[in-house]
Structure formats: C-alpha cells, structure tokens
Amino acid sequence: MKEQEVKSYQRKTQRDYSLAFKLEIVDAVEKGELTYKQAQLRYGIQGRSTVLIWLRKHGRLDWKESEAMKKDTPNKKIRELEKKLKRLEQEKEVLNRAIDIADSQLNTDIRKKYLSLLSEATDQAQSKNGEPLDL
User: Fold this and answer.
1) Which segments of the chain does DSSP mark as H helices, in order?
2) pLDDT for 27 beyond 70
3) Concatenated DSSP letters of 50-76
4) What pLDDT, in 10s, does the model give residues 50-65?
5) Which residues contact 22 (CB under 8 A, 6 or more apart)?
6) Chain-centroid distance, C-alpha 63
7) Which of 35, 46, 116, 131 has the highest CB neighbour count under 10 A?
8) Closest Cα partner for 13 from 43, 51, 46, 39?
C-alpha cells in the first residue's frame, strides 16, 4: 500500500535582515537587475511589501509614489482623454460665445475670417491689374 505523505504546515517567523543585505537588494532592484517581486522570491523574503519598504527607506529613487509599478490600463487612459476632450470642447464653446457677444456689443469683427479676407484681396488685385492671379 502507498504511504501517504502528510505535509505539516510550518509557520514562518519574522526574520531580521542585515543592512548590507537590504542595501544589496535595493541596489539590484534600482539597477533593473530584478523586480521587487523577483528579489522577494529569489532570496526568500517573506513579507509582501518588505522589499518595497526597503526601497522607500534606503533607495535613491522616489518609491513613495510607486508610479513605476502602477500601469494605466488603456480603458483608464481613454476615459481620461475623453474627459479632457469634453472639457476642452466646453472651453472652446465658452470662448466662441464670448467672441460673438463682444462682436455684437462692440460692432467689431474679432474673429478673423481668412477665406473671406483672402477672396476680397484677390478680387481687389484682379480689378487693379485686370489679370487673374495664380495662387
């Protein structure tokens, strides 16, 4: 008959790591040789955030924000860009209304209409010279 192996659960206790060991891990992660999770697995570091804490405490890079570890999903980026587009369209609408109001109250032509100005200039030049202009 087969013998059944019974694996007993061994409770892991908190370990104290030397400062030199911590600095070695931090240096390897900051150089890009390992990710913090790879260092955790390779060296048997038990805590999930232990290496991150070391990076914040002893590292030369700014690990407080941890932006390098967070990656924006494409959907999140699309939502942010859609919000920005909507806001810019609203700003454009407000500015156009302000120009229209200023034009009507001040009897001016603030908004430049290049095509109409261009056609007027070509008409005037043609009438002076009597020849059509090549554009």
Assistant:
1) 19-31, 36-43, 50-58, 74-106, 114-129
2) yes
3) HHHHHHHHH-SS--SS-TTT----HHH
4) 888 888 888 887 766 5
5) 54, 58
6) 17
7) 35
8) 46
Rg (alpha carbons) of the chain, rounded to whole number = 34
Contact 29, 55 (CB under 8 A): yes
Q: How far is the C-alpha of 45 from the C-alpha of 14, rounded, in Å?
A: 10
125, 117 contact by CB (below 8 A): no
CA distance 7 to 97: 76
pLDDT of residue 125: 73
For 129, the token pair is 């010279």
pTM: 0.39
More confident residue, 128 or 23: 23
Q: Residue 1: what pLDDT?
A: 47
Q: How many CB atoms lie within 10 A of CB 25?
A: 23
The residue with tokens 């390098």 is: 68
